[in-house]
Amino acid sequence: MFSFKICHNLFHPSGKGLLVLSGQKWFQHRRLLTPAFHYDVLKPYVRLMSDCVNVMLDKWEHIIPDKKPVELFHHVSLMTLDTIMKCAFSYQSNCQNDRSVFGDSITSFHYLTYLTYRFVCLPYHSDILFHLSPHGFRFRRALRTAHQHTDGVIKERKESLKEDKELEKILQKRHLDFLDILLCAKDEKGQGLSDEDLRAEVNTFMFEGHDTTASGISWTLYCMAKYPEHQEKCREEIKEVLGDRETVEWEDLGKMPYTTMCIKESMRLYPPVPGVARELTSPITFSDGRSLPKDIRKLWNCFSVGDLNNNCLSCFQIFDPLRFSPENASKRHSHAFLPFSAGSRNCIGQNFAMNEMKVALALTLQRFELYPDKEQEPLILAQLILRSLNGVHLYLKKIDSSKKTKV
């Protein structure tokens, strides 16, 4: 879990993004950014997601002849970075095949997710002590690198907008993306986002939409390997929807109910963001009479939130996708499953993330059978993002193309 202060320091001194803003400014940014996640904007992303996933799967095909387990998180993280650059910023990074393209930036963004050491180290709660520490030095260096990358992306887009002048001309060349909407967004007074706010929101989306989704995909693939009966059910469903196609279409996403349930069950057991923080704007009294005052920072562990089946711990640990069937979901409290938080401050990009996870799982299971590496079981590491201390290792077996169901 993490505090607002530490989370804010991810992007200090370049301002606050939607993740940590509050009050009227949060409301203004949320309203300006919401159109970026309309389904009309998300539709063309699905093909781009498919392209990025297939690049990763092609790499895996060259690795598996060694008959060694593949450490997934590294590959999946590069894939999600490639995806977000192509979808949200129309930027052809090629980072999956040439890591040197974003080498320093990738390292910096990864380092910025390891900030829980500041939360658990009491002296580091002091800005001065943290600033003078080796961790503080590395943090500032990583932050500078991340900001240089962000500033470069924004600068390049601004120049292209000046050249084409009209957004309509640009959209004849490519899809409308997140950065277009950020740069063109105006409030009721005709005011757009400042350069400081632009950088903060791009940083926020890069951070939230990159490693968080990589974590969700990696742990879902691990669950598929660990529970082969569910893996096979998903594969049969995916075959019926895709046939021999290696690209997922927008219309396919709603035709994979069992696959979707498996993704949700994986996130219940392995929440990509293991802790969520909120600051109370008013006092609250619970049903048992206990209360919390205004301005207190409330932290909760997402591992402890879920359908406990009458507090039966053994039931809680069972992988059961049918928890999320329509009939069972209707019986559950709306806040019993919170991988994207809830309420007005829920994750604005949750549909983007779910679409990407569906695409990644569908294309992976279409091409490979997954088996766990029993000698390298993942060791859960709950930081800002849920990781594994020793990686997520799986054996992959290429599926004979002749066994694929034809449309």
Give me some keywords for this one.
407 residues; mainly alpha; Cytochrome p450; 3-stranded antiparallel beta sheet; two-stranded antiparallel ribbon; 9 strands; globular; disordered N terminus
Describe the structure.
The chain is mainly alpha-helical and 407 residues long. The chain has one domain: Cytochrome p450, CATH 1.10.630. Helix content is 51%, strand content 8%. The chain is built from 18 helices and nine strands. The protein has a three-stranded antiparallel sheet. A two-stranded antiparallel sheet has the order 2-5. A two-stranded antiparallel ribbon has the order 3-4. Helix 4 packs antiparallel against helix 5, helix 4 packs parallel to helix 18 and helix 13 packs across helix 14. The protein is globular, with a radius of gyration of 22 Å.
Topology of this structure?
Blueprint: H1 4-9, H2 23-33, H3 39-42, H4 45-63, E1 70-71, H5 72-89, H6 103-112, H7 116-120, H8 127-132, H9 134-164, H10 167-171, H11 178-184, H12 195-208, H13 211-226, H14 228-242, H15 257-269, E2 275-279, E3 284-285, E4 291-292, E5 297-301, H16 313-316, H17 326-329, H18 350-367, E6 368-372, E7 380-382, E8 386-388, E9 393-398
Antiparallel strand pairs: 1-9, 2-5, 3-4, 6-9, 7-8
Helix pairs in contact: 4-5, 4-18, 5-13, 6-9, 9-12, 13-14, 13-15, 13-18, 14-18
